[in-house]
Amino acid sequence: MTSVDYKLLNTDGTARRGQLQFARGTVETPAFMPVGTAGTVKSVTPEEVRASGAEILLGNTFHLLLKPGMEVIAAHGGLHKFMNWSGPILTDSGGFQVFSLAKLRKITEQGVTFRSPIDGSKIFLGPEEALDVQHTLGSDVVMVLDECTGYPATFEHAQQSMQRSMRWAERCKRAHKGKHGALFGIVQGGMHLQLREQSLQDLINIGFDGYAMGGLSVGEPKDEMLKVLSYMGPKLPANAPHYLMGVGLPQDLVEGSRFGIDMFDCVLPTRNARNGWLYTPNGIVKIRNATHRTDTDPVDKSCECYTCKNYSRGYLCHLYRSHEMLGARLCTIHNLHYFQKLMQQIRQSIEDCRFMTFRKEFYDGIGVEPPDVA
Ligand SMILES: [Zn+2]
């Protein structure tokens, strides 16, 4: 029945530097959570993930429910033991994947019925079922089941969708009583600020251990996302953690932190690593490009990861072009390290009350104009 304590260490404007204190360990915030979709951060071991600086992982309920299935996870005593990660784990509710991946789904007030993409069997996921799965996983942060409103959505559609999510949030709160883990509510409402505010107020009335912003980065223009983020971020309850779901370009981590977000997750560093896209303080390096073939420098001279300390761009370019497995592993190690280093710099700049100066240096480094948000 442990939960999470949020400890605020410093603020700089609306940015905040803090700690999430779990029974399984402390997480320095703002924090980036690598995604372990199928019970693994693809191609790297938990030790390698830990060495990158990550203190908390995200697990996907939908994928784990389908494969290997809850009887396998339960037989191992939960996801931590199954995948050999002893730190905190946040799990999503499965809703996002059901809505985005599952074909033949039917949504009612009770929940969502869908066909398994693996064997075609019929599966029902309601608020209670989504929590039941996360309890079996042993999650340290349990997310409510919500309906992720797509983009674009009319006011009426976004309102109905949000209101259903709020009714589901209430059912999740009841289903979580006495169970392990913190329970986070999710603010919805599309790009409509009035609905977003209503959604947040409804969640505060129900009472959660943390508050997430859902339904962003769903295909809307960047300025729409920033409008919602800059308006809602500072309104999230000060004494609880704030989580921006599924948003993870380096620029988004900087902007999210600016508006008081404490937690982020995204598949970008790992997925792009497998595509040979490497993040550096000077922008993206596409390692398959012929220009790197004879380059004996590391990906990033300032990077202290295992890959940059030991291998050249030319070697990585060769591995990538030869479809060698080690290429994906080494690229993943570097990207995970870059994302954690960025978060560490964000945290330090908030501590030193120089966040906006850091922000400018960051954009100068990657050669991108900072977004103009009031
Ligand atoms: Zn590196």
Task: Kindly list the characteristics that best describe this protein.
374 residues, alpha/beta, TIM Barrel, 2 domains, nine-stranded parallel beta sheet, three-stranded antiparallel beta sheet, 15 helices, 42% helix, globular, binds zinc ion
β-strand amount: 15-25%
Assembly state:
single chain
Number of alpha- plus pi-helical segments: 15
The stretches of 5 or more residues where confidence is low (pLDDT under 50) are none
Query: Please, what is the CATH homologous superfamily of the largest domain?
Result: Queuine tRNA-ribosyltransferase-like
Largest sheet: 9 strands, parallel
Calculate the terminal CA-CA distance, rounded to whole Å.
41 Å
The CATH architecture designation of the largest domain is: Alpha-Beta Barrel
Biggest β-sheet: strands ordered side by side in the sheet? 4-15-14-13-12-11-7-6-5
Under CATH, the topology of the largest domain can be stated as: TIM Barrel
What small molecules are bound in this structure?
Answer: zinc ion
Shape: globular
Please tell me the overall pLDDT. Answer: 96
Helix content: 40-55%
Return the CATH class of the largest domain.
Answer: Alpha Beta
Query: Which structural class fits the helix and strand makeup?
Result: alpha/beta
Compute the number of strand runs: 17
Give the radius of gyration. Answer: 20 Å
Describe this structure in words.
By secondary structure, the chain is an alpha/beta fold. It folds into two domains: 5-261, Queuine tRNA-ribosyltransferase-like (TIM Barrel, Alpha-Beta Barrel); 273-365, no CATH class. Helix content is 42%, strand content 18%. Strand 8 (106-107) and strand 9 (112-115) form a beta hairpin. The termini are far apart. The model has no long low-confidence stretch (mean pLDDT 96). The chain binds zinc ion (ZN).
